[in-house]
Protein backbone atom coordinates (compact mmCIF):
# COMPACT_ATOMS: atom_id res chain seq x y z
CA UNK A 1 0.00 0.00 0.00
CA UNK A 2 2.86 2.34 0.95
CA UNK A 3 4.42 1.68 -2.46
CA UNK A 4 1.28 2.90 -4.26
CA UNK A 5 1.08 5.97 -2.01
CA UNK A 6 4.69 6.86 -2.84
CA UNK A 7 4.08 6.13 -6.51
CA UNK A 8 1.11 8.49 -6.51
CA UNK A 9 3.08 11.21 -4.70
CA UNK A 10 5.87 10.83 -7.24
CA UNK A 11 3.52 11.48 -10.16
CA UNK A 12 1.78 14.34 -8.37
CA UNK A 13 5.19 15.89 -7.81
CA UNK A 14 6.01 15.48 -11.51
CA UNK A 15 2.72 17.19 -12.37
CA UNK A 16 3.77 20.14 -10.21
CA UNK A 17 7.25 20.14 -11.74
CA UNK A 18 5.91 20.36 -15.28
CA UNK A 19 3.40 23.13 -14.61
CA UNK A 20 3.82 26.57 -16.18
CA UNK A 21 6.80 28.48 -14.72
CA UNK A 22 6.10 31.80 -12.94
CA UNK A 23 8.76 33.65 -14.89
CA UNK A 24 10.56 31.64 -17.59
CA UNK A 25 13.62 33.91 -17.62
CA UNK A 26 14.36 33.01 -13.98
CA UNK A 27 14.09 29.31 -14.81
CA UNK A 28 16.41 29.81 -17.78
CA UNK A 29 19.07 31.39 -15.55
CA UNK A 30 18.61 28.63 -12.99
CA UNK A 31 19.02 25.98 -15.71
CA UNK A 32 22.30 27.54 -16.80
CA UNK A 33 23.55 27.32 -13.19
CA UNK A 34 22.53 23.66 -13.01
CA UNK A 35 24.43 22.96 -16.24
CA UNK A 36 27.54 23.93 -14.33
CA UNK A 37 26.69 22.26 -10.98
CA UNK A 38 25.31 19.00 -12.32
CA UNK A 39 26.89 18.79 -15.75
CA UNK A 40 30.27 20.48 -16.07
CA UNK A 41 31.26 19.50 -12.54
CA UNK A 42 30.73 15.83 -13.46
CA UNK A 43 33.05 15.90 -16.48
CA UNK A 44 36.14 15.23 -14.34
CA UNK A 45 34.90 12.10 -12.61
CA UNK A 46 33.36 10.72 -15.81
CA UNK A 47 36.62 11.35 -17.70
CA UNK A 48 38.80 9.66 -15.08
CA UNK A 49 36.56 6.62 -14.68
CA UNK A 50 36.02 6.25 -18.45
CA UNK A 51 39.76 6.39 -19.11
CA UNK A 52 40.55 3.60 -16.66
CA UNK A 53 37.50 1.56 -17.60
CA UNK A 54 38.52 1.69 -21.26
CA UNK A 55 42.04 0.67 -20.27
CA UNK A 56 40.83 -2.30 -18.20
CA UNK A 57 38.38 -3.46 -20.89
CA UNK A 58 41.21 -3.46 -23.44
CA UNK A 59 43.60 -5.39 -21.20
CA UNK A 60 40.92 -7.92 -20.21
CA UNK A 61 39.84 -8.42 -23.83
CA UNK A 62 43.47 -8.93 -24.80
CA UNK A 63 43.91 -11.46 -21.99
CA UNK A 64 40.83 -13.38 -23.15
CA UNK A 65 41.74 -13.38 -26.84
CA UNK A 66 45.32 -14.65 -26.68
CA UNK A 67 44.40 -17.53 -29.00
CA UNK A 68 45.93 -16.72 -32.45
CA UNK A 69 42.65 -17.55 -34.23
CA UNK A 70 41.23 -14.26 -32.94
CA UNK A 71 42.41 -11.25 -34.94
CA UNK A 72 44.09 -8.64 -32.74
CA UNK A 73 41.82 -5.84 -33.91
CA UNK A 74 38.98 -7.51 -31.97
CA UNK A 75 40.51 -5.96 -28.86
CA UNK A 76 39.80 -2.45 -30.21
CA UNK A 77 36.36 -3.52 -31.38
CA UNK A 78 35.58 -4.99 -27.95
CA UNK A 79 36.69 -1.83 -26.22
CA UNK A 80 34.60 0.35 -28.56
CA UNK A 81 31.41 -1.68 -28.26
CA UNK A 82 31.70 -2.11 -24.48
CA UNK A 83 32.17 1.62 -24.06
CA UNK A 84 29.31 2.57 -26.38
CA UNK A 85 26.77 -0.07 -25.45
CA UNK A 86 27.16 -0.35 -21.73
CA UNK A 87 29.77 1.72 -19.97
CA UNK A 88 29.09 5.22 -21.31
CA UNK A 89 25.38 5.04 -20.56
CA UNK A 90 24.66 2.51 -17.79
CA UNK A 91 27.84 2.49 -15.71
CA UNK A 92 28.23 6.26 -16.09
CA UNK A 93 24.58 6.66 -15.03
CA UNK A 94 25.24 4.57 -11.92
CA UNK A 95 28.20 6.81 -11.10
CA UNK A 96 26.10 9.92 -11.71
CA UNK A 97 23.32 8.47 -9.54
CA UNK A 98 25.88 8.50 -6.75
CA UNK A 99 27.28 11.93 -7.44
CA UNK A 100 24.41 13.97 -8.87
CA UNK A 101 21.56 12.02 -7.25
CA UNK A 102 22.87 12.34 -3.72
CA UNK A 103 23.67 16.02 -4.35
CA UNK A 104 20.12 16.75 -5.55
CA UNK A 105 18.47 14.83 -2.71
CA UNK A 106 20.60 16.44 -0.02
CA UNK A 107 20.27 19.95 -1.49
CA UNK A 108 16.48 19.80 -1.75
CA UNK A 109 16.18 17.86 1.51
CA UNK A 110 18.20 20.48 3.37
CA UNK A 111 16.04 23.21 1.86
CA UNK A 112 12.99 21.33 3.14
CA UNK A 113 14.19 20.91 6.73
CA UNK A 114 15.47 24.49 6.94
CA UNK A 115 12.08 25.78 5.72
CA UNK A 116 13.54 27.31 2.54
CA UNK A 117 10.93 25.40 0.50
CA UNK A 118 8.20 26.77 2.77
CA UNK A 119 9.65 30.25 2.18
CA UNK A 120 9.33 29.73 -1.58
CA UNK A 121 5.74 28.51 -1.21
CA UNK A 122 4.82 31.50 0.95
CA UNK A 123 6.15 33.83 -1.75
CA UNK A 124 3.78 32.13 -4.18
CA UNK A 125 6.55 30.28 -6.04
CA UNK A 126 5.86 26.75 -7.29
CA UNK A 127 8.77 25.30 -5.32
CA UNK A 128 8.70 21.90 -7.03
CA UNK A 129 8.96 23.42 -10.47
CA UNK A 130 11.50 26.08 -9.49
CA UNK A 131 13.83 23.61 -7.77
CA UNK A 132 13.44 20.49 -9.89
CA UNK A 133 12.67 21.53 -13.47
CA UNK A 134 16.00 23.33 -14.12
CA UNK A 135 17.90 20.32 -12.73
CA UNK A 136 15.91 18.00 -14.93
CA UNK A 137 16.45 20.05 -18.08
CA UNK A 138 20.16 20.44 -17.32
CA UNK A 139 20.75 16.71 -16.82
CA UNK A 140 18.55 15.68 -19.75
CA UNK A 141 20.56 17.95 -22.05
CA UNK A 142 24.01 17.56 -20.53
CA UNK A 143 24.18 13.84 -19.70
CA UNK A 144 24.22 12.86 -23.41
CA UNK A 145 27.29 15.09 -23.74
CA UNK A 146 28.83 13.26 -20.77
CA UNK A 147 28.06 9.98 -22.52
CA UNK A 148 29.87 11.09 -25.67
CA UNK A 149 32.81 12.27 -23.57
CA UNK A 150 32.85 8.88 -21.79
CA UNK A 151 32.91 7.02 -25.10
CA UNK A 152 35.76 9.09 -26.53
CA UNK A 153 37.91 9.06 -23.39
CA UNK A 154 37.21 5.39 -22.70
CA UNK A 155 38.37 4.35 -26.17
CA UNK A 156 41.36 6.65 -25.80
CA UNK A 157 42.19 4.98 -22.46
CA UNK A 158 41.93 1.60 -24.12
CA UNK A 159 44.29 2.67 -26.89
CA UNK A 160 46.86 4.05 -24.43
CA UNK A 161 46.72 0.98 -22.17
CA UNK A 162 46.75 -1.48 -25.06
CA UNK A 163 49.74 0.04 -26.82
CA UNK A 164 51.73 0.79 -23.65
CA UNK A 165 51.20 -2.76 -22.35
CA UNK A 166 52.15 -4.10 -25.77
CA UNK A 167 49.01 -6.25 -26.13
CA UNK A 168 47.99 -4.58 -29.40
CA UNK A 169 49.56 -2.29 -31.95
CA UNK A 170 48.21 1.17 -32.51
CA UNK A 171 47.22 0.30 -36.10
CA UNK A 172 45.31 -2.82 -35.02
CA UNK A 173 43.47 -0.92 -32.29
CA UNK A 174 42.45 1.89 -34.62
CA UNK A 175 41.37 -0.62 -37.25
CA UNK A 176 39.35 -2.43 -34.58
CA UNK A 177 37.47 0.64 -33.42
CA UNK A 178 36.51 1.40 -37.04
CA UNK A 179 35.59 -2.17 -37.92
CA UNK A 180 31.87 -3.00 -38.38
CA UNK A 181 30.81 0.20 -36.69
CA UNK A 182 27.04 0.52 -36.22
CA UNK A 183 26.05 4.19 -35.71
CA UNK A 184 22.72 3.12 -34.17
CA UNK A 185 24.64 1.95 -31.10
CA UNK A 186 25.38 5.60 -30.33
CA UNK A 187 21.67 6.46 -30.65
CA UNK A 188 20.82 3.52 -28.40
CA UNK A 189 23.32 4.71 -25.84
CA UNK A 190 22.04 8.30 -25.92
CA UNK A 191 18.40 7.20 -25.56
CA UNK A 192 19.36 5.18 -22.49
CA UNK A 193 21.29 8.14 -21.10
CA UNK A 194 18.29 10.46 -21.40
CA UNK A 195 16.00 7.97 -19.64
CA UNK A 196 18.58 7.39 -16.90
CA UNK A 197 19.06 11.16 -16.45
CA UNK A 198 15.32 11.52 -15.91
CA UNK A 199 15.33 8.68 -13.37
CA UNK A 200 18.29 10.11 -11.45
CA UNK A 201 16.87 13.64 -11.25
CA UNK A 202 13.23 12.84 -10.59
CA UNK A 203 13.81 10.04 -8.06
CA UNK A 204 16.46 12.02 -6.16
CA UNK A 205 14.38 15.20 -6.16
CA UNK A 206 11.37 13.21 -4.93
CA UNK A 207 13.39 11.78 -2.05
CA UNK A 208 14.68 15.23 -1.09
CA UNK A 209 11.41 17.10 -1.55
CA UNK A 210 9.46 14.96 0.91
CA UNK A 211 12.07 14.75 3.65
CA UNK A 212 10.50 15.06 7.05
CA UNK A 213 12.66 15.70 10.09
CA UNK A 214 16.26 16.84 10.39
CA UNK A 215 19.76 16.23 9.11
CA UNK A 216 19.58 12.50 9.80
CA UNK A 217 16.58 12.18 7.48
CA UNK A 218 18.36 14.24 4.82
CA UNK A 219 21.21 11.72 4.91
CA UNK A 220 18.75 8.84 4.66
CA UNK A 221 16.96 10.50 1.76
CA UNK A 222 20.28 10.94 0.00
CA UNK A 223 21.09 7.23 0.43
CA UNK A 224 17.61 6.20 -0.72
CA UNK A 225 17.97 8.45 -3.77
CA UNK A 226 21.15 6.65 -4.83
CA UNK A 227 19.80 3.15 -4.11
CA UNK A 228 16.41 3.62 -5.81
CA UNK A 229 17.92 5.44 -8.80
CA UNK A 230 20.52 2.69 -9.27
CA UNK A 231 17.95 -0.11 -9.09
CA UNK A 232 15.66 1.69 -11.54
CA UNK A 233 18.58 2.34 -13.89
CA UNK A 234 19.42 -1.38 -13.94
CA UNK A 235 15.77 -2.31 -14.46
CA UNK A 236 15.28 0.17 -17.29
CA UNK A 237 18.59 -0.93 -18.81
CA UNK A 238 17.10 -4.37 -19.37
CA UNK A 239 13.80 -2.99 -20.65
CA UNK A 240 15.41 -0.49 -23.03
CA UNK A 241 17.93 -3.02 -24.32
CA UNK A 242 15.11 -5.40 -25.16
CA UNK A 243 13.08 -2.64 -26.78
CA UNK A 244 15.87 -0.97 -28.74
CA UNK A 245 18.19 -3.80 -29.72
CA UNK A 246 15.91 -6.80 -30.24
CA UNK B 1 -7.76 41.39 8.80
CA UNK B 2 -7.52 37.63 9.10
CA UNK B 3 -10.30 35.58 10.65
CA UNK B 4 -10.01 31.99 11.74
CA UNK B 5 -13.20 30.08 12.48
CA UNK B 6 -13.47 26.69 14.19
CA UNK B 7 -10.13 25.51 12.87
CA UNK B 8 -9.37 21.83 13.39
CA UNK B 9 -6.12 20.15 12.44
CA UNK B 10 -4.74 16.72 13.27
CA UNK B 11 -1.68 14.66 12.41
CA UNK B 12 -2.19 10.90 11.95
CA UNK B 13 -5.55 11.15 13.66
CA UNK B 14 -4.17 12.97 16.70
CA UNK B 15 -5.74 16.42 17.14
CA UNK B 16 -3.19 19.24 17.23
CA UNK B 17 -5.56 22.20 16.99
CA UNK B 18 -9.18 22.08 18.08
CA UNK B 19 -11.94 24.59 17.47
CA UNK B 20 -9.68 27.64 17.18
CA UNK B 21 -11.54 30.86 16.41
CA UNK B 22 -9.81 34.23 16.43
CA UNK B 23 -9.62 37.51 14.53
CA UNK B 24 -6.23 39.07 13.81
CA UNK B 25 -6.53 42.79 13.36
CA UNK B 26 -4.97 45.05 10.73
CA UNK B 27 -2.22 47.46 11.83
CA UNK B 28 -1.69 45.51 15.05
CA UNK B 29 0.92 43.05 16.21
CA UNK B 30 -1.08 39.93 16.98
CA UNK B 31 0.66 37.35 19.10
CA UNK B 32 0.10 33.61 19.39
CA UNK B 33 1.71 32.44 22.60
CA UNK B 34 2.03 29.08 24.29
CA UNK B 35 4.49 26.44 25.41
CA UNK B 36 6.65 24.53 22.98
CA UNK B 37 4.53 21.88 21.30
CA UNK B 38 1.26 23.64 22.06
CA UNK B 39 0.40 24.02 18.36
CA UNK B 40 1.50 27.62 17.69
CA UNK B 41 3.57 26.85 14.61
CA UNK B 42 0.93 24.47 13.23
CA UNK B 43 -1.66 27.23 13.65
CA UNK B 44 0.54 29.78 11.89
CA UNK B 45 1.38 27.36 9.07
CA UNK B 46 -2.29 26.46 8.73
CA UNK B 47 -3.20 30.13 8.44
CA UNK B 48 -0.69 30.66 5.63
CA UNK B 49 -1.73 27.42 3.93
CA UNK B 50 1.42 25.39 4.45
CA UNK B 51 -0.71 22.86 6.32
CA UNK B 52 -4.08 21.71 5.00
CA UNK B 53 -6.75 21.93 7.69
CA UNK B 54 -9.39 19.26 8.25
CA UNK B 55 -12.20 21.67 9.03
CA UNK B 56 -12.85 25.32 9.75
CA UNK B 57 -12.45 28.53 7.80
CA UNK B 58 -9.59 30.96 7.24
CA UNK B 59 -10.65 34.34 5.88
CA UNK B 60 -8.30 36.95 4.45
CA UNK B 61 -10.55 40.02 4.45
CA UNK B 62 -13.61 38.63 2.60
CA UNK B 63 -11.82 35.76 0.83
CA UNK B 64 -12.16 32.23 2.15
CA UNK B 65 -8.48 31.27 1.80
CA UNK B 66 -8.59 27.56 2.65
CA UNK B 67 -11.10 26.82 -0.12
CA UNK B 68 -9.07 28.54 -2.84
CA UNK B 69 -7.30 26.56 -5.54
CA UNK B 70 -3.53 26.79 -6.09
CA UNK B 71 -3.81 29.89 -8.30
CA UNK B 72 -6.10 31.65 -5.83
CA UNK B 73 -3.81 30.90 -2.91
CA UNK B 74 -0.84 32.05 -4.96
CA UNK B 75 -2.51 35.44 -5.44
CA UNK B 76 -3.07 35.90 -1.70
CA UNK B 77 0.44 34.66 -0.99
CA UNK B 78 1.87 37.42 -3.14
CA UNK B 79 0.58 39.72 -0.37
CA UNK B 80 2.24 37.71 2.41
CA UNK B 81 5.66 37.98 3.96
CA UNK B 82 6.94 35.43 6.40
CA UNK B 83 9.82 35.29 8.83
CA UNK B 84 10.69 31.70 9.68
CA UNK B 85 12.14 30.41 12.93
CA UNK B 86 15.49 29.60 11.31
CA UNK B 87 15.25 32.62 8.97
CA UNK B 88 15.04 30.31 5.92
CA UNK B 89 17.37 32.45 3.82
CA UNK B 90 18.49 30.76 0.62
CA UNK B 91 21.98 29.43 1.38
CA UNK B 92 23.27 29.71 -2.16
CA UNK B 93 22.29 33.38 -2.53
CA UNK B 94 23.89 36.48 -1.07
CA UNK B 95 22.00 38.90 1.18
CA UNK B 96 21.22 41.12 -1.82
CA UNK B 97 20.10 38.18 -3.95
CA UNK B 98 17.89 36.89 -1.14
CA UNK B 99 15.99 40.17 -0.90
CA UNK B 100 16.01 40.54 -4.67
CA UNK B 101 14.50 37.10 -5.18
CA UNK B 102 10.78 37.97 -4.70
CA UNK B 103 11.27 41.16 -6.72
CA UNK B 104 12.85 39.21 -9.58
CA UNK B 105 10.14 36.60 -9.43
CA UNK B 106 7.08 38.82 -9.25
CA UNK B 107 7.89 42.29 -10.57
CA UNK B 108 8.85 43.64 -13.96
CA UNK B 109 10.78 46.69 -12.74
CA UNK B 110 14.22 47.52 -14.10
CA UNK B 111 17.28 46.07 -12.39
CA UNK B 112 18.18 49.53 -11.01
CA UNK B 113 14.73 49.93 -9.47
CA UNK B 114 14.88 46.48 -7.93
CA UNK B 115 18.34 47.06 -6.46
CA UNK B 116 17.14 50.40 -5.11
CA UNK B 117 14.24 48.62 -3.40
CA UNK B 118 16.60 45.96 -2.02
CA UNK B 119 18.87 48.60 -0.55
CA UNK B 120 15.89 50.45 0.89
CA UNK B 121 14.60 47.29 2.60
CA UNK B 122 18.05 46.38 3.92
CA UNK B 123 18.57 49.89 5.22
CA UNK B 124 15.13 49.79 6.83
CA UNK B 125 16.20 46.78 8.88
CA UNK B 126 19.62 48.30 9.61
CA UNK B 127 21.66 46.00 7.41
CA UNK B 128 24.35 48.07 5.76
CA UNK B 129 27.38 46.99 3.70
CA UNK B 130 26.40 43.34 3.82
CA UNK B 131 24.90 42.96 0.35
CA UNK B 132 27.51 40.50 -0.83
CA UNK B 133 27.67 38.34 2.26
CA UNK B 134 26.20 34.84 2.28
CA UNK B 135 23.79 33.72 5.04
CA UNK B 136 26.50 31.51 6.54
CA UNK B 137 28.56 34.66 7.17
CA UNK B 138 25.81 36.40 9.16
CA UNK B 139 24.97 36.34 12.86
CA UNK B 140 21.57 35.07 14.02
CA UNK B 141 20.22 38.60 14.48
CA UNK B 142 21.42 39.70 11.06
CA UNK B 143 19.81 36.67 9.44
CA UNK B 144 16.48 37.60 11.04
CA UNK B 145 16.83 41.15 9.77
CA UNK B 146 17.61 40.03 6.24
CA UNK B 147 14.65 37.65 6.41
CA UNK B 148 12.45 40.58 7.47
CA UNK B 149 13.85 42.67 4.60
CA UNK B 150 12.98 39.85 2.17
CA UNK B 151 9.53 39.52 3.72
CA UNK B 152 8.72 43.22 3.25
CA UNK B 153 10.32 43.56 -0.20
CA UNK B 154 6.96 43.28 -1.98
CA UNK B 155 5.08 45.52 0.50
CA UNK B 156 2.99 42.70 1.97
CA UNK B 157 -0.40 43.19 3.57
CA UNK B 158 0.21 40.29 5.93
CA UNK B 159 3.36 39.54 7.90
CA UNK B 160 3.87 36.24 9.72
CA UNK B 161 6.71 35.67 12.15
CA UNK B 162 7.46 32.27 13.61
CA UNK B 163 9.52 32.59 16.79
CA UNK B 164 11.37 35.70 15.59
CA UNK B 165 13.47 35.81 18.78
CA UNK B 166 14.55 32.21 19.04
CA UNK B 167 18.30 31.93 19.50
CA UNK B 168 18.82 35.67 19.98
CA UNK B 169 20.20 37.52 22.98
CA UNK B 170 17.65 39.65 24.92
CA UNK B 171 18.85 42.98 23.48
CA UNK B 172 18.80 41.81 19.85
CA UNK B 173 15.44 40.17 20.53
CA UNK B 174 14.00 43.50 21.72
CA UNK B 175 15.37 45.22 18.60
CA UNK B 176 13.75 42.63 16.35
CA UNK B 177 10.45 43.01 18.22
CA UNK B 178 10.60 46.78 17.90
CA UNK B 179 11.33 46.46 14.19
CA UNK B 180 8.35 44.16 13.64
CA UNK B 181 6.07 46.56 15.53
CA UNK B 182 7.36 49.60 13.63
CA UNK B 183 6.94 47.92 10.26
CA UNK B 184 3.44 46.75 11.17
CA UNK B 185 2.37 50.30 11.95
CA UNK B 186 4.32 51.87 9.07
CA UNK B 187 2.81 49.61 6.38
CA UNK B 188 -0.47 48.99 8.20
CA UNK B 189 0.01 45.25 7.94
CA UNK B 190 -1.79 42.45 9.70
CA UNK B 191 1.05 40.89 11.63
CA UNK B 192 0.92 37.58 13.44
CA UNK B 193 3.84 36.60 15.65
CA UNK B 194 4.36 33.20 17.24
CA UNK B 195 6.37 33.41 20.41
CA UNK B 196 6.92 31.99 23.86
CA UNK B 197 9.14 34.89 24.86
CA UNK B 198 7.45 36.92 27.60
CA UNK B 199 9.61 39.95 26.81
CA UNK B 200 8.06 40.04 23.35
CA UNK B 201 4.62 39.64 24.84
CA UNK B 202 5.10 42.65 27.10
CA UNK B 203 6.79 44.73 24.39
CA UNK B 204 4.58 44.24 21.37
CA UNK B 205 1.51 42.23 22.38
CA UNK B 206 -1.34 44.40 21.14
CA UNK B 207 -3.54 41.37 20.73
CA UNK B 208 -2.61 38.03 22.26
CA UNK B 209 -4.07 34.56 22.12
CA UNK B 210 -2.78 31.82 24.37
CA UNK B 211 -2.82 28.24 23.15
CA UNK B 212 -2.39 25.18 25.32
CA UNK B 213 -2.52 21.62 23.95
CA UNK B 214 -4.09 22.85 20.71
CA UNK B 215 -6.92 24.73 22.40
CA UNK B 216 -7.29 28.51 22.64
CA UNK B 217 -7.42 29.19 26.36
CA UNK B 218 -7.25 32.95 26.54
CA UNK B 219 -7.45 36.11 24.43
CA UNK B 220 -6.49 39.66 25.42
CA UNK B 221 -3.64 42.13 25.29
CA UNK B 222 -0.40 42.84 27.14
CA UNK B 223 -2.20 44.89 29.78
CA UNK B 224 -4.63 42.10 30.65
CA UNK B 225 -2.21 39.22 30.63
CA UNK B 226 -0.81 39.76 34.13
CA UNK B 227 -4.24 39.79 35.68
CA UNK B 228 -5.78 36.79 34.04
CA UNK B 229 -7.85 34.14 35.83
CA UNK B 230 -6.66 31.46 33.44
CA UNK B 231 -4.50 29.13 35.50
CA UNK B 232 -2.75 27.56 32.51
CA UNK B 233 -1.86 31.03 31.24
CA UNK B 234 -0.60 32.09 34.66
CA UNK B 235 1.57 28.98 34.86
CA UNK B 236 3.07 30.00 31.53
CA UNK B 237 3.43 33.73 32.23
CA UNK B 238 4.85 33.31 35.72
CA UNK B 239 6.98 30.29 34.90
CA UNK B 240 10.33 31.68 36.00
CA UNK B 241 11.22 32.40 39.62
CA UNK B 242 11.66 36.16 39.09
CA UNK B 243 8.16 36.50 37.66
CA UNK B 244 6.77 34.38 40.50
CA UNK B 245 8.43 36.62 43.10
CA UNK B 246 7.12 39.76 41.40
CA UNK B 247 3.64 38.32 41.35
CA UNK B 248 3.80 37.41 45.02
CA UNK B 249 5.13 40.89 45.88
CA UNK B 250 2.29 42.52 43.90
CA UNK B 251 -0.30 40.44 45.71
What does this molecule look like?
The complex is a heterodimer of chains A (246) and B (251). Chain A is mostly helical and 246 residues long. Chain A has eight helices and no strands. Chain A has one domain. In chain B, helix 3 runs parallel beside helix 5 and helix 6 runs parallel beside helix 7. In chain B, 43% of the residues are buried. In chain B, 39% of the residues lie in helices and 24% in strands. In chain B, the strands form two sheets. Chain B has a six-stranded mixed sheet with strand order 6-7-8-3-9-10, sandwiched between helices. Chain B has a domain of 130 residues: 3-Layer(aba) Sandwich (Rossmann fold), CATH 3.40.50. Chain B is of the alpha/beta class and 251 residues long. Chain B has nine helices and ten strands.
Outline of this structure?
The complex is a heterodimer of chains A (246) and B (251). Chain A has one domain. Chain A is elongated.
Which keywords apply here?
heterodimer; A: 246 residues; B: 251 residues; alpha/beta; 6-stranded mixed sheet; 4-stranded antiparallel sheet; 9 helices; 39% helix
Number of helix segments of chain A?
Answer: 8
User: How many β-strand runs of chain A?
Assistant: 0
CATH architecture of the domain at 1-27 and 34-79 and 195-251 in chain B: 3-Layer(aba) Sandwich
Overall average residue pLDDT of chain A: 94
Uncertain stretches of 5 or more adjacent residues of chain B: none
- The amount of helix of chain A comes to over 70%
What's the quaternary structure here? heterodimer
> Whole-Å distance between the termini of chain B?
38 Å
Structural class of chain B: alpha/beta
